Amino acid sequence: MLGYVVKRFLNFIFMVIIASSVGYFLASSALSPRGNYEAANPPIPKESIDAVLNRANVNDEVPFTTRYVKWASNVIQGDFGEDLEQNRVNEEFSRRVWVSLRLLLLGSLLGATVGVIIGVTSAVRQYDLFDRSSSLFAYIILSTPVFLLAVLLKFVGIKFNDSVGSTFFFTQGEYTPGFTGSSLAAFGDRLQHLILPTLSIALGSISFYSRYQRNTMLDVLSSDHLRTARAKGLTKRQALFKHGLRVAISPMATFFAYGFGLLIAGAAFTETIYGWYGMGQWFISSVGKNDINSVSAVVTFTAVLVLFSGFLADIILAILDPRVRSRA
Amino acid sequence: MTVDNATSVERISRGQLIRRRFFRNKSAVFGIYVIAFMFLFAFGGPYIAQWSYSENDFSSLLQGPSLSHWFGTTQVGVDVFAQTTRGLQKSLIIGLLVAVFSTGLSAIVGSVAGYLGGRTDKASMWFVDLMLVLPSFLVLVILSRFYQGKSWLLLVIGLTIFDWMITARVVRGLAMSLRERDFVRAAKYMGVPTRKIIVRHLLPNMASVLIIAATLNVGGAILAETGLSYLGFGVSAPDVSLGTLIAEGTSAALTYPWLFLFAGSILIFTVLAVSFIGDGLRDAFDPGSLRVKKSVK
User: Fold this and answer.
1) In the list A80, A200, A224, B76, which could disulfide-bond A89, CB 3.0-4.6 Å?
2) According to the CATH classification, is domain A2-327 in 1.10.3720.10?
3) Which chain A residues are closer than 8 Å to B296 by Cβ?
């Protein structure tokens, strides 16, 4: 088992290096920070532009390999450099990372647990009312793009506030600026801000997981080993919990990993629409500002998250399924 | 058994059987109707509309749905109905093109990797893994600089490049099992070149999977395109898509909901219909698949 973990971990490190380098390369070739200054009126002297670009290590007249080596050697030491306004990228990163992680972790945990429960329940009660209505609901949500879902939820939230005459759902920002009150009240305030953005992210993953879980569970329910378990004299419930669930849940681990990548893209929309200053919103605005270093930082962050959840999924899969362990 | 008996048995081909199974599926038929309606609406709508998307009706700015403007008007008096048909046209075309191209690409990569195996397989699957690590959405936003303001066909290429990996994996798995089948081996030992084996023997045997994947990819492609367009990284002016329409409408969504609700619901219905059709096709081609299996009681 330990050998397997080490092997997966080395693969994880290797893929992170490749993915972040590819991200840096793409950002450097597509974005042109020089363009920010060249169009200025009155024109800025070329020397000053070069000075700014050199300071941030994004001068397109310096060979790419030189810039890359400098960037990579800093990143290995945990330093993502500066943006064009001479702010440390790391500072911005640490300010924003928890905003996004809170949204992503809540969204994915909620999505996975509720989704798996709905999926299992509707598989066990195939074709009854619950199964049919949850399937239809999942189909509709999966056909709704995240941005539309976020906008619709915001719309419904504001209408709800209007009809009850007080603000229950907050639709802008993470917390009320200048909020005064006890820490409990402040927590409640944050919670009220959190509900709609989290729902916009979680509803999609709930539907996604419930569909897949329903399918794998149906597969398991008709499998031979479950019939054997019943033949042995276990009750349906015992057979389901002891022999069914474990097999049915393990494929979900892989989806959980790759689902994270989708969630990050979803967070970009949710953060933009609800005015959260998280990683996704940072990414969108940095691309607009031709800020190569910030864009690369977000891409690296994403690669680490996706690959790390993939790594975790491999480990969970190995714990649940002994065959995976022995194969490695 | 008599001759009479044999003739009374109805003989149907596999194609007829699939068609019959498909049309028995209510949600799939519903999907077909919705998609047919959407095409009619997108391409026939402009002929029955009283206004064109380039006209401004200055006598009615920001008016709700009415007899002369069925979906209402925008801030500058443009007819929302005309705009929506135009946006839907672009979204449908992009969705179809991306689905066809990306499924074609995954068929080629997947079958070559699965059939040849060995190093080719390892290298291409490693490449697929790498492409899956970086969310295609982020990469497309970064690369938007290369296609923005130019032809929307470049956007189609971009979406295609990042939408083939998962299907390619499925195709590879199928190719690996087909490789071991007798008819493929026979062809190989008779000296049929690899390219011909793939085109003649592998791809036709995966046709059902490819058709299903292509259908489901239409929905995915439409979602990806509208998402990028919503943030301003996809279809750009003068072209419009459902994504740009919704983006323009959401700023004033609360007071003037018609600006985005029509485009939004058309988008949801289109993608929903496509996935109903895709699932209907899957059930029709492969009734033994786990989706329709009955559970043990």
Assistant:
1) A80
2) yes
3) 221-222, 226-227, 230
